[in-house]
Amino acid sequence: MPFGPARIAATNRYAEGRGSRHHPVTIGIPDRTWRDATELAIPAHRVYPLAAQDAVLYLDSIGRGGMLSNRLCVFRIGCPPAHCPCLTRACLATSSDPMLSYDRDLTMWATQTLTAKDTMSRILIAECKQEVSTFNPAPSRYEDFRVVKGADLLDFHYNTREEVGGALSVFDAAADVELVPSYGASSNTSGGVLAAESFNRLLHDYSSAIATARDLNTIDAAYICLHGAMQAENENDPEGALLHQARRILGEQIPIVVSVDIHGILTDRMLQLADAVVVYHTYPHIDFYETGVRAATLLLKILRDEIRPVTARVKIPTLARGDEMITATGAVGECIRKAQEIEAGVDGLAAGVMWGNPFTDVPELRSNAVVVMDGDEEAAQTLALDLAQRFWTHHEKMQVPLASLQDAVQQAAAVAAGTVVMMDAADATSSGASGDSNAILREALHQGYEGTILAPLVDQAAVEFAFRAGVGGSFRAHLGGAVDGQR
To answer: Which residues fall within 8 angstroms of residue 373, CB to CB, at 6 or more apart?
Structure first.
């Protein structure tokens, strides 16, 4: 099945006028600096909070190749020469703009070395990760989340090798970056659809933390770490709602880069609100930290006006599971290696494939190929289409050849020694399921299996019985259905 142009969606926040940081804005000019003008339109990337006591603005005329070029300069506190090349007495002295009012004292004052704080780019950090199973009857709740706020968010992630920790390693290495931590929530427990009141509280607390950070700081960019497979009783696209709130609070002009799990659901709204999306490259997941590094590196390039990201996404009508999805050995590895090749290219910024969590039953659940390029929309579309076609070539293999439960127990009985591991993948707590199915145990007892089976089963009461019985002891208990009472 070929993928035609109609299946390609491309976003270019800069071409649409939503991501550009060069829209003219009007700012006030300190009276002590300007004599004849009180307002001036300048590019937004030059705008900082201004006060007469800590900034001097002026237009300078510098000869370049025999031509005079007027330039608005902003002296910020502690701005090093590399960032303010015209921060010299000579530059002021040679300025020919008639509106500039300066004297010896002002010239001396403007060239003083001041503190560095206002030259920093302030990057907001936020996090919200959860993967649910729609078919788990036990709703997840706010209390299931690990929540950290403000500086505690940084303290937590400096001690982990997750996405935010990787991003921090990049930001900390940049001398001109100041971190603004806001809110971090993560739930790794199994859980069904997030209860409406819990999602409302989560969204409120997340939004309030971002708003507080904005009120206390001038935010220049944001890194938001998401999973992508959430669902709430009152919202089928929680990640899109989280990004909408971030955009509403922070505005359209600042760049926002998000990272997502390879099992996330990439929605239209997420693509419209983010400047770039960075996806894991491994399953089983071993590149949490590296994904954060990739996302932070991309964000800094946007912030420094080095790139203009454009994104193309191709929707692939596939839900995939099984060994072929193991990125190191399975068929999907071809797509991952191509994505890494794209990112290593001159204009490649981010690329990946996502096949979602098939147990998060929401309208936009599907597989996706996504490519972010530097300014080249046509290349982004071509490469995203190529990734999608590579994925589709293998889609018939991307399913698990399952044995019936009866046959599986018979195979286990043929094992002469050792322990047999049997697992119900559709009841995996790591994908949000309740994990309390006793189907494997029941069939083994039914067939009179006498060997040793390791079969995960969630049952808190049974665990307490086992601890009381001790190693080598025995007990009688009902097993199964501890969470899903209809089992």
So the answer is: 309, 310, 312, 347, 348, 349, 379, 380, 383
> Parallel, antiparallel, or unpaired: how do β-strands 146-149 and 177-187 relate?
antiparallel
At 174 the three-state DSSP class reads coil
* pLDDT tens-place string over residues 28-84: 323 323 222 223 333 333 323 333 333 333 333 333 232 323 333 444 334 333 333
Query: Which string of b and e fits 166-185 if b means at least 16 CB within 10 Å?
Result: bbbbbbeebeebbbbbbbbb
Using DSSP bridges, classify how beta strands 256-260 and 276-279 pair: parallel, antiparallel or unpaired: parallel
Those residues with Cβ within 8 angstroms of residue 175's Cβ, 6 or more apart along the chain or in another chain: none
Q: pLDDT tens-digit profile of 364-376?
A: 999 999 999 999 9
Q: Look up residue 339 and give its DSSP letter.
A: H
**Domain architecture of the chain: domains with CATH:** 24-115 (no CATH), 120-397 (3.40.50.2300), 405-469 (no CATH)
CA 327, 433, 412 angle in degrees (round to 5)?
A: 70
Helix (H) or strand (E) run with residue 439 in it = helix 439-446
Residue tagged 């900082």 (tokens): 48
Quote the crossing angle between the two packed helices 151-158 and 163-172, to the nearest 10°. 100
* Partner residues linked to 453 by β-bridges: 420
Count CB-CB contacts under 10 A for residue 448: 8
pTM score above 0.90: no
List CB contacts of 204: < 8 A, sequence separation 6 or more: none
